[in-house]
Fold these 3 entries.
Entry 1:
Amino acid sequence: MSDTKPLLHQKPLLSFWQIFNMCFGFLGIQFGFALQNANVSRIFQTLGASIDDIPILWIAAPLTGLIVQPIIGYLSDNTWGKWGRRRPFFVLGAVCTTLALFVMPHSPALWVAAGMLWIMDASINIAMEPFRAFVGDNLPNKQRTLGYAMQSFFIGIGAVIASALPYVLTNFFDVSNTAPAGEIADSVRYAFYFGGAVLFLAVMWTVFSTKEYSPEELALFEQHSDQNIDTERTGLRDAHQYQNGSVLWTSIGILFTAAIWLLEWDKQLFILSLGILFFGPLQYYCAQKVKALQSHSQENNETNNHKKSREKQGLIFSVVDDLFNMPKAMSQLALVQFFSWFALFSMWIYTTAAVTDYHYGTQDVLSKAYNDGADWVGLLFAVYNGFAAIAAIFIPIVAKKCGLKVTHCINLFCGGLGLISFIFINDPSLLWLPMIGVGIAWASILSIPYAMLSNALPAKKMGVYMGIFNFFIVIPQLLAASVLGLILRVCFDGQPIYALISGGIFMMIAGIAVLRVNVDGH
């Protein structure tokens, strides 16, 4: 990975400790991510948010990912300097996330906390997106499953500690978990301080202990790769694919429109504005491409003209063009991700409300019962991440025997059954049992889709395609944020436990969908 060494024709296998150092920064990133997932709903409720408002307040997380990740992916693909192409973004994201973690628990009002969530999630995405491409950049194909599993291991370890921090501080260090109305408990504040420090130090470890291949080395690896990658064709062969893309985004747009129709008018206006900003340019782009491509009669000229036009495109149009030129395997995996992340988002935003309401019998955020239940949820999140770390060790072994698709299907069914079982368990002390299944699914979601995808992507576009792949993580979260509150209110009398049941069903649907993914060799 040094410019002073002769260029290699194939990526060498990395040692265990090289992969360890490369992935260690994810431990810190997950500290911030886990503190956010386990405590933000609690912070919102503490500052006066109702259960119905929680999904809309959480919309910041998926929306920032939708915008930030493909842009950061594109920029990191086209960045090279003293610190490489991905590592400058690690540093920027780590600094911004650390500052956000220090400020978040001091939010004086609900609108401030909601704004800090936007900043925190954008900062996490700046650091996290290049880490996915980092593994694809540095590891040969045969080690990528191991690399993403190593990331899952550190994600699990980081999340175990971060999620359990408020519970540990209260029960072992006598830090108060209650506070006057409108104030964040000390146990949450101290957890955020500690998490910010760990995040920064862990990311810096990876930055200073790992090097990157130069663009020339990556180009040579790509040239001598024996893998047949469809995406090396930079232009689309005909307008039919753009028409399919137009139909896809029209369908998603109709789904959003139907979902928001029954919301209150102010929420309709907010969500509709987001939809116009996102789906409008995509539809216009598809229409223009169809018109342009249909005006040409010769396929070769179309492709050559398209290649020349790409060189003149800016960031946004280049990203959108890659969106509609994604590999077939990526489009199939998109459906799997859609259902998987709808389920995960349902769990993240509603577990605190579900457990405190269904198992502890209260929604009073000032009561000890509520705060004991919220602390227990943090410990449950630690449990599922702990089992995810363990599962990450065995996933590469199982995948070698059963294949990636079957392994992922089994793991997703474990998670789905775990979420559904919440309604059948009355004793909250036993809720750690379904978290075993959730942890297995979480480890699988964080590793197997990326291992399948990275083998189908060209090295020079690894970052931007990983960012575009994130669309199919955040779109279901935006949809969940739009409709879950309404569904619970209209269909289930506002009982948040049914959000977990819905999540379980969607996770099993994802397990079925992965069996239809067509990836060579799996």
Entry 2:
Amino acid sequence: MITIVRLLADLLDHAHRRQLARVVAMFVATGVLQGLAFACVVPVLEAALSQDWDAATTWLGVLGGLFVAHHVALTIGNLDGYDLACDLLDTTLARLGEHTARLPLGWYDQDRTGQLSRMASKGATDIASVPGHLLRPLIAAVLSPVTVVFAMAFLEWRLALALLAGVVAVLATTRLLSGIVGRGEGAYDAAMAEGSARVVEFALNQPALRVFGRTVHGNELVEQALREQRRASRRLLVTGFGGLGIQLLSIQALLTLVIALAVHLSLGGTLSAATAIGLLVLTVRFVESLIDFGELTSALRIAEGSLRRVLDVLRIDPLPEPIAPVRPAHDGIELRQVTFSYDGGADDDATRVLDDVSLVAPPRSLTAVVGPSGSGKSTLLRVVARFHDVTAGSVMLGGVDVRDLGTEALMHRVSIVFQDVYLFEGTLRDNVLMSRPDATEAELRHAARLARADDIVERLPHGWQTRIGEAGSTLSGGEKQRVSIARALLKDAPVVLLDEATAALDAENEAAVQEALTALSADRTVIVIAHRLQTVVAADQIVVLDGGRIVERGSHDELLAHRGRYLDFWRERTQAEGWRLLESPQTPSRRGTRRA
């Protein structure tokens, strides 16, 4: 319990730490006052059974005072606790959102979706339940018995000694159980996160799954994840109930021992019957507190696990930001001996995605990057945009290292269109305007026209105000890409990074968008990953990547004359463009032929 209070303090700011301290102090007071009130039952019963009404009245007055003080402390503690629970829920979600937005993109992978979703839903609720619901009964379940033991030491030290030994045994059993439940809860949470990620993946990729006949009963990954969820849930339930049973058994054994000892002392004449009855009543209430503690331990352990996972995420270092950001002198891009590995291992050749890459993209120029799959093309754009910090070397924008520029200033100067387009649930207008919310209507329509997204607006039933569904589900792949391009164009950033921006467009729209993108290089620095021949030919310079290294660079004509890897690339693309579907003169069916 002390551990989880310390972990909560790590999550909260200074003002809320003080509020947490007040809540804990009030609940400690309620636990002690409750224990003292229980202890007063013994002298009240002794006085009543011996018909000493003056003593009974005095002790009843003391009991009443303790009762009032207990409820005052309880009311203050509960009100502060509920307020803190609401603030804690907001704090957890806000800190998670703010921190994950500053983490390197390399931290994210497919499994993070389920983990973050669970942290932001059940995990945040579990954490908020600690000051709102768990702290008070847990503190009372510990301090009330301890207070009773101390009080009983003045009434009958032998019974107090027996209860103290029982408390130690129960707490030891609880600690052992907490460790077992904690391991099971960790496995359970991991299984739930994995299951959530697989279900989300299954839902988002229905078109591909159905094309290949992988329907509800054919997706082994989802079914396996759900089976593991059931197994983890079963293990957690068996462990929890089994441990709780052991706890209850030990508590009942303690109660039996104290009753037997009280009867023995009473029959031996060393303990009066009135005192024995009062002590037995006190013992029963003592045991009830221990039972409450045992039942609450599992919930506390689950909340502690959720809190630790949130704090683990918050302890991940974000990309460092400069104290005094430097303003770039121009909009040119330069990579100086850049080496990058996703695991940070600069000395391991096998893990390098980029290896000693040096490149200059002058201001207001178009640089095309070509190469085979896995050669590091997309990673090159990502380090330019500082989605990752390079392992070695430096990325410069306008003569300034992007690490000295600052993320906000860098993102203000860079516009990005990646091959994997994501649109947010909302209207078409909202999705385009998110890159520049203060854009005028004329600027919005101009960007849509350049990206050939204006015909999408005309086709949709409510035009710009049409809701496009989660991840843009109501639009085709090409339409989503055009909306993404319109969003990038509206941003009007001086540096534009394009990763296969026209890959999903038909020939007519591709040509139109390509003209717009080429026009951008007149007053912008454009780096484009290109497979399309028109992009390659129009580029001011072409860089050929292979195995994370630049193997060739130059203009289109220079590289063709060099007769190296680029010439192979050009021949492959030229031959691919020569394929056409023609009608066979022998049969009405169509077959693929290549024109000479």
Entry 3:
Amino acid sequence: MKKEVIFLLIACSFSLFSMSQDVSDVWIIKGKDIGSGIIFTPQDYIKKELNYSNLFVTAKENSEVISPISGKVETLDYSYYNTLSYSSTYDIPEINDSLKPLEKDRKIREIIANNQKLTPSRISVLLSIKDEKGRVYRFLGIRPFKFFKTGDKIRKGETIGYVGYSYHSVEAPSIMFSVDYKGKPVDPMGIFGLTTTFLPSSKKIKRPSSYKFSKSELLKDFIVFKNSLEESHPGLYDYISKKELDSVFDSVEKRLKNSMTSHQFKASLMGVLKEIRDSHTNIISKKNPSRKITYPPVLFGVTNDSVIVYATHPDYKQYLNKRIVRIDQKDVKNLIFKIRKLVYGGDGYINTVEKRILLFDFWKYYHFISSEDGTDELSLEFSDGSRQNFTYVQTTLKSYEPNYQHYSANSNFYVSNFKNSTYLLDINTFELTDKDIDSIGRFIKSVNELESSKLIIDVRDNLGGEVNNIERLYSFIATAPFSVTQYQKVNSNTTYQSFKHSLNIPQNHVLFENYRYSGNKNEYILAQDNFPTIKPNTEINFKGDVYLLINEFSQSASTIFPALFFKQKRGVIIGRETGSTYYQMNALKFNRVHLKHTGLELRIPLVKVVFDEDVDKDIPWGRGVIPDYIVSLQYEAFLKETDPIISKALFLIESKNTSFQERGHLTSVLILVLVLCIIFFKKFFVQ
């Protein structure tokens, strides 16, 4: 399947990250001096195209490419760059693994080129290496020395490939080298101590958060917001009618008669997104890097329509579990009503996400609507009549007690062993490396070899990742062949007008030319025969009992795993309803629409992925995967430092074991009684 990968290279978004302390003494071409072979640097023009942040280095074809840093392989993809800011990557087709890397590479490029009508030499490996500080180094134009797996360790000076061709506008064999940090381009020359041509972001006018935009500015941004949604969102009217949404748009537009701050305007747009009910549609503010991150010393949220302090900084433990009645002299009931209108994040008719957000993030939303003057002061009045003023502190949420983030972890996954041959696999993300999946496979295989083993799989607070990783992992427990997608739908198979406001898609670009018109207005379909059917893994396939733990933050692609689990009736599901729907999802490709006056960004999914059109009697349409055993969200459980969902799973396992033992004892007694009856019958009645 073709996947579009988009790199934001807009000049105004550049971020200069100082790398002078990490100057490398290794050049990317083996045996060559640092700086040799450079043909294009940042701010050069390649034909008529401005090169913002890449370094192009030429060398003889098949010269060795080495890594200037140590790190881990993050990606290895086959790519073709349409422009310097937009590329396509392609899944690697199945090829005989016995072939040598360069021969395998040649065949892969020929297959992709034939399918995509491209020149084979201009398709190349894009290898990304991430260092321990989070900087990502990208090498395009590589011919593979070996087919690295994601997660493989790379040492500084290690050979990573051979020189091929990087970009269609560069005639010579070359490597296109770039660096980014947290998604922002970084100087690719500074790492080598070279005099740089890279330009950081230009200085912009910094307005205080209290600055009010004019009616004209707000209206222009709102029109772009509205038109972009109506043109390109594939599920805009799934959970609200066009008439109802038009009414919402009208009411927001009427409020724009007066000037507004960016906060106020964003709050109005958030109210629209709440009505659309799509967790992948977001409105994003540009962060102020100069503003220190601070938190109130007491964290408070909504439970049973009351506001409770559920965690505190260590010096404020006396306020834990106290009920708040007024915040900055405002009645909490009015605040709950106001903030509830802003809270979005769950798909369809799912309400578990809103409940979770109101409980643990109510204090964040209050700060959002009240912090236009930049103050970090808070006044609370409690139900016992006491009042206290608080000053925000610079700290981390990990320092609060109790730590309610039970399910967060630094690792992508971890495993552990409970008693009674019960094992836990906790998957925190599906953004897994090949090494991760290999490790999980070995773990499941080892558990499968044990007698009467049970497996708990935990995908709570897992916000998604790659679908192909889910397919690979589910094949380890699947009982029959399965497919994830029935079909995909978009609104157009030509370009979109909203791309002219896009931060990540070139204007007039065509994304979905292989989608076919369905006969319905604004509906273009990619049919099921474009998606694979996956068979259970023949080498690793767990046969025992499986217990799956889910909650409201099992979202996006992380709803697919429990959906497959539910379809195949693979085991017992415990926890709370997933945050994304069982039947469909808007995702995959996104348009980042820039609202240029207020600086906000609208993130719109462009593809609706339909997983199942047949409504199951146990899951109403528009709902998430619903557990067999529901464990409701209660903040008291966090105060006790317990995990009620895992406790429920262990209870069910223990109950089943006990039930089996009791049935076993009963069977033995019945057999004994039967034997005695036969003996008695023979002795007294058979002559």
